[in-house]
């Protein structure tokens, strides 16, 4: 079993924030792969399903971003899984908007959700980094991250989430490079 966690903040007022793109990815994957109903557990919302031959638990922590590690830790302990079974989907300032990169381990780059998971489980989990771009000056970062996607960004966002969901089988199989490359092809980008 794998645990895929999307990071975001709970509540309708945060639904379209760039910081919630991890939640959006979980919803897209659940819909495309016909996951089961939403359950309230592990201080969050979960959905179970299969992608290819892999059993996947999708988790959206309800703890707010800076406490995400509590929810994720609860899920891994319940299933007796190590950090190698965890994939975290999150917004990434240092990647151009609507681009995707995957890596295992690394720092938190000031991301409170990653920092919380790192504190609870260590840094060696896989990350699906969903680009939101940098607003250009550090004083504008908070407003950018906690701002809603603009009307003009909705179509590329929808395309990105659709591509992530459509290519998720590569991620489930552990082929991170193919996952990223096929998303780029689907979106008409060079990888």
TrEMBL record:
> Per the UniProt record, which EC number(s) apply here?
3.1.1.29
RNA-binding is among the record's keywords:
yes
| Gene Ontology BP terms | protein quality control for misfolded or incompletely synthesized proteins; rescue of stalled ribosome
- Site entry: Discriminates between blocked and unblocked aminoacyl-tRNA: 9
Please name the GO terms that the record assigns under molecular function.
Answer: peptidyl-tRNA hydrolase activity; tRNA binding
- Site note Stabilizes the basic form of H active site to accept a proton, residues: 91
Q: Which reaction does it catalyse?
A: an N-acyl-L-alpha-aminoacyl-tRNA + H2O = an N-acyl-L-amino acid + a tRNA + H(+)
Binding partners and assembly = Monomer.
Q: Which family does it belong to?
A: Belongs to the PTH family.
State the protein's name. Answer: Peptidyl-tRNA hydrolase
């Amino acid at each position: 079993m794998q645990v895929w966690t999307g990071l975001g903040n709970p509540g309708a007022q945060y639904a379209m924030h760039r910081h919630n793109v991890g939640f959006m990815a979980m919803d897209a994957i659940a819909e495309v792969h016909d996951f089961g109903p939403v359950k309230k557990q592990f201080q969050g919302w979960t959905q179970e399903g299969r992608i290819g031959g892999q059993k996947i638990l999708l988790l959206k922590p309800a703890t707010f971003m800076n406490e995400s590690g509590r929810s994720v830790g609860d899920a891994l302990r319940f299933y007796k899984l190590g950090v190698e079974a965890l994939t975290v989907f999150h917004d990434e300032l240092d990647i151009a908007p609507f681009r995707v990169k995957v890596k295992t381990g690394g720092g938190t780059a000031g991301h409170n959700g990653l920092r919380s998971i790192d504190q609870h489980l260590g840094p060696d989990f896989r990350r699906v980094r969903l680009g939101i771009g940098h607003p250009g000056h550090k004083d504008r970062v908070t407003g950018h991250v906690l701002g809603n996607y603009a009307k003009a960004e909705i179509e590329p966002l929808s395309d990105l989430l659709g591509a992530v969901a459509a290519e998720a089988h590569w991620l489930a199989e552990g082929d991170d490079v193919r996952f990223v490359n096929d998303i780029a092809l689907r979106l008409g980008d060079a990888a």
